Structures are given as structure tokens and as C-alpha cells.
């Protein structure tokens, strides 16, 4: 039997020690689902930024090239995600970069810890 209260305590302790407060922004849309104005803040969550390794496989004839791609993610408490109502398409700004939320995973389906997948917004202009 897993002590879920202890698991939440461990995550909360790590969030308090090395977490960052992340603001989630949502773009308002009109009745045609077109963006209107600037994104508005919907809430803030204490999170831990981490990256997961993904693989890209490129096959050309007899050779195969495998590249690893970093997938940025935010680890946080599920109750905070539910309170802010994080949705796919919301925006996050970290370290001068803009990220779009691509998914929210309820880890172990315990409704205790969530992992938010992100994708870097590439505007095509070098900084």
C-alpha cells in the first residue's frame, strides 16, 4: 500500500525548496476561435522545471539516424493544476522563452501530482 500523503509531502517539500512560480496565460478568442488581443493571466503555480528525453528517428535507405530531443515539462501538485484549470494551448514564459502547454498528465491517476508538457514557441527571429 502506497502512503499517498507521504508522496505528496515529498513533492511539496521539493517544490518549496527548489520550485519556481510559473504564470499561465490564456489567449482570449472570438466566436470564430480567432485570437483577440494579448494573452491574459489565468493563474500561477509553484512548479519544478525538468526535461524528458524524446527520440526522433530518421530513416534514409539502409541507414538510420536517431536524435534525442528534449521535451520541457513542469512538475506540480494536481490540486494547483485543477484550481488554475490549465488547458492545452495556454502559454508559459520561462527564462525569456515562450512555451505552449501541449498536455497535462495526472501521474499514476492519483490526482496528487501532475506533469505539464510544454513546447517552445519558435517565432523565427533570433534573439
Describe it.
The chain is α+β, with helices and mostly antiparallel strands. It is built from two helices and six strands; from the N terminus they run αβββαβββ. It has helices at residues 4-18, 78-84, and strands spanning 20-29, 35-60, 63-77, 91-94, 97-106, 113-120. It has a six-stranded antiparallel beta barrel. Strand 2 (35-60) and strand 3 form a beta hairpin. The chain is globular, with a radius of gyration of 17 Å. The termini are far apart.
Key phrases:
17% helix, 127 residues, 2 helices, alpha+beta, 6-stranded antiparallel beta barrel
Task: Please give a quick description of this structure.
The protein contains two helices and six strands; from the N terminus they run αβββαβββ. The chain has 127 residues and is α+β, with helices and mostly antiparallel strands.
